[in-house]
Predict the structure.
Amino acid sequence: MTNINLLPKSLGPKGSILKLANFSQKAAVVMTAIFFIFGLFIGGYLFFLNREIKNSQSRQETLKATIKNLEQTEQKLFLLKDRIAKIKLFYSLADSQTDFQDVGSLLAGNPSVLATKVAVTPGKVTLNGMAQGSQTFGDFLGVLVLSPNYKSINLSSFSFSPEVGYSFGFDLTTK
């Protein structure tokens, strides 16, 4: 159909206004296209971030499970270490009992030597005692030196009084 305009041309819009309207129409189309493209980019970016958050949460859960397993393993190792320490203590107490029996046999060999204190720790025996005479003390010292159970013998104290006799203290290191 033909477009018939019965109005005079002087009443119509001016050419500059028509150009401006045409330009604004084209600009609106371009701006709408840019808006949709920008919206697609934002939507894609939000989708990417959502996926990354889910991946991070799954990695976090995996790491939490791994940490929990490692904590349980650490606790088991700690308990195992404690048990081993108790076993070593038991064996050292058994060795200490043997050391105590060795000192007992030394003292039984010399009835005139009196033990005033015997302290047995793993690897070490502390023996304090008294002897009436120098011959008795010499015999006890000879038996002690010849004993194969001691690595080193340290005379920690030695004194003489006419009322008591010889008082002595030995630190014996066991083999």
Notes: The chain has a mean pLDDT of 87. Strands lie at 113-121, 124-131, 150-161, 165-174. The domain at 97-174 is CATH 3.30.1360.100 (Gyrase A; domain 2). The helical segments are 15-109, 134-146.
